[in-house]
Amino acid sequence: MKFLSDLSVNTRAWQLLSLTVFALELSALYFQYVMGLAPCIMCIYQRTALWGIFFAGIVGSMGNKNIVLRSVAFTLWGVGAIWGLLIAIEHVEIQSATLSFLYSCEFVPNFPSWAPLHEWLPSLFEATGDCGDINWQFFGYTMPQMMIVVFGGFTAVLVVILLAQLINKKSL
After folding, report:
1. 141-142 and 137-138 as β-strands: parallel, antiparallel, unpaired?
2. Which of 17, 31, 53, 63 sits 20 to 30 Å CA-CA off 99?
3. Of 133, 120, 146, which Cα lies nearest the Cα of 46?
4. Could you give the C-alpha distances from 85 to 24, 69, 136, 149, 163, in angstroms and in order?
5. Who contacts 49 (Cβ-Cβ below 8 Å, separation ≥6)?
6. pLDDT at position 172, please?
7. Alpha-carbon distance values, 162 to 4, 32, 67, 93 (Å)
8. Of the candidates 161, 147, 172, 167, the residue with the CA atom closest to the CA atom of residue 57
């Protein structure tokens, strides 16, 4: 339990978190620009959630010895992982709905006016696809189904580390 608890003050662990997310972002760009799979609005929101986890890793790697910065990193991680999981679940529901033609996706992300990411970095955050389209599968699982696994994994690891810290503090 101490090993898991100590991960939050380990610079390499936070760097591994960022590196893992960065690899997923590069994969998304490969799917988009090499394989020609246009991201829908739900994909863009999931991509944004991943960037939140990426920045959690950056903040955590720089400030893991500081309780405030570590708390900020955990918060970013939690918001990104849980929000991404909820978006991925909703995306799967859209794709698997019996009357999927009744669902429609917006093409312009609903980012805050103070952070219009789709205007600042359209190559990363511009939605050009349809949420209901299933253009890719891996062992019979769609992209949003795979993202449920990814975000579920990020959420589970976060919960385990936080619980380990709680248990470790109680045993002291």
Report:
1. antiparallel
2. 31
3. 146
4. 15, 24, 19, 8, 20
5. 79, 80, 81, 83, 84, 87, 151
6. 47
7. 9, 35, 13, 30
8. 161
Cα–Cα distance measured from residue 80 to residue 51, given in angstroms and rounded to the nearest whole number: 8
Q: What is the mean pLDDT of residues 8-30?
A: 93
What tokens appear for 126 in the block? Answer: 């511009």
H-helix or E-strand spanning residue 100: none
Q: Kindly report whether the global pTM for this prediction surpasses the value 0.85.
A: yes
How confident is the model at residue 158, as a pLDDT?
A: 96
Token pair 């045993």: residue = 171
65-108 tens-digit pLDDT: 899 999 999 999 999 999 999 999 999 988 887 665 666 677 77
C-alpha–C-alpha distance, residues 154 and 61, integer Å: 17
